[in-house]
Amino acid sequence: MATIPIIFEPQDPFLWFLIFNEKETTMICTTNVTLAYGKRVLFKDVNIKFAPGNCYGLIGANGAGKSTFLKILSGDIEPDSGTVSVGSRERIAVLKQEHFAFDEETVLNTVIMGHEKLYRIMTERETLYDKPDFSEEDGIRAGELEVEFAEMSGYEAESEAAVLLNNLGITEEMHQKKMKELEGGEKVRVLLAQALFGNPDVLLLDEPTNNLDIKSIAWLEEFLYRFQNTVIVVSHDRHFMNQVCTHIVDIDFGKISVYMGNYDFWYQASQLNLKQKQEGNKKITDRANELKAFIQRFSSNASKSKQATSRKKLLEKLTIEDMPVSSRKYPFICFKPERPCGNVILEVDGLTKTINGEKILDNVSFTVNGGDKIALMGGNSLAKTTLFQILAGEMEPDSGTFHWGATITHSYFPKEYSAYFNGDRNLIEWLLQFAPPTEGENFARTFLGRMLFSGEEAIKKISVLSGGEKVRCMLSRMMLSESNVLMLDEPTNHLDLESITSLNNSLLNFQDVILFTSHDHEFVNTVANRIIEITPGGVIDQLMTFDKYIERTEVVKTREAMLRKAA
User: Fold this and answer.
1) What is the pLDDT of residues 506-524, one digit of tens each?
2) Which superfamily is assigned to 346-424+461-566 in CATH?
């Protein structure tokens, strides 16, 4: 962030724009902000000052109100009471979620529209110059617009927008396309560029790393690290939060608390605080029990009656601190294979697959060994998904072979799983499809309860489940399979931080074989002990953690050689 001196020369011209256009900013703050839905109070009397030069990570359980709080800050939602204050000349930029709102605009214009005043001046200026009967009055107005346009760096707007788009993986040939021509993930990247454009005073980002590859995430981390103004971000990516956040804003226990430091620091501090409260209560409880025992023993003893009375007064003064109930819930995720893997796991030889005229897999070969936890990497997500579908038996390769060992049972978490939730079943009925035939409703309710579907939620219709709930159901299905090889294609999508933590820990404890993909840096780095990157020119296979993989210069050289070969 801005508090750290910049000691190098950035190659990105947009970063030069940010560094040398620093200006004085005022903070955005909330005063006694309260919001409730019926009897459920989301926030009450929230007073926070968000200062320039800081990045605030907004965290909390699903449904705690993170996105709602961002909408209050942006002015999209009015609180029940209280105010949000921001300087009259301050500009707030928001990562928009309306993916179809700009369908008729070009990609480049969509980005520039993030700075509404600049875009309005640009449009009026162009309209004036296009008039066939350009008058003296028009000339005066055009002169005024030219001054404003220059002051707002309007002449550099298109080049700055192009730089942002390129860094987020939207190549130059796409810049003049209409937004409706783009795929969903590409639209998200353009809307992110729109939010970042023009050096806003306050930047509100809700899940900005969704649909970004690891290279784009790294660029965004670097961008926010140098950003001079105020950032408030919601993200489920722990590594991203650790890299960019100077503060954590935690929505829990019916209030909003601010911690200095990144996500890891918040987690350690909050756990230490909870432990200290628990230990303090235990000491008080132990002391109270001692006093009660003494009073009970000696209250009728004349020689000890004064001491017993004294201890009664001490007992009355002891107060056990109320332990508030956290809104955070951690699902119980545990994969237990019915039997361990044998010596032969999986042999892949020369798999090739072409889809719609494009070669997705080209002569892919590798052998999986016992204890491997393999992260499949690569810029083409379709290549990884296609490989999983072939290995799971859902798709035939054009050529090549693969062979699973005789002792292997595998379970697959697909990237697209909506077909599993068609129909009118409730959750109990859905789960029992995958359970042993001897099990019934009590088993299903117990299992679902551990996956955070308790009480009436267990009979919820599968057609109304949220994205995160569907993921928990798919993980339940995998647990019931008792397989010794797990294949997971982007399992962290739609999960909250608590569920990601539970899944992360379960895979760390799993003793057999895992093949997986994820854009969650922390998840990949902690789980994987082997990286297989699928490039257009072949496979890079390294037995190491993800952090070591991205640091190795020989990996970069190998990738560049393969790309040249493919070209």
Assistant:
1) 999 999 999 999 989 999 9
2) P-loop containing nucleotide triphosphate hydrolases (3.40.50.300)
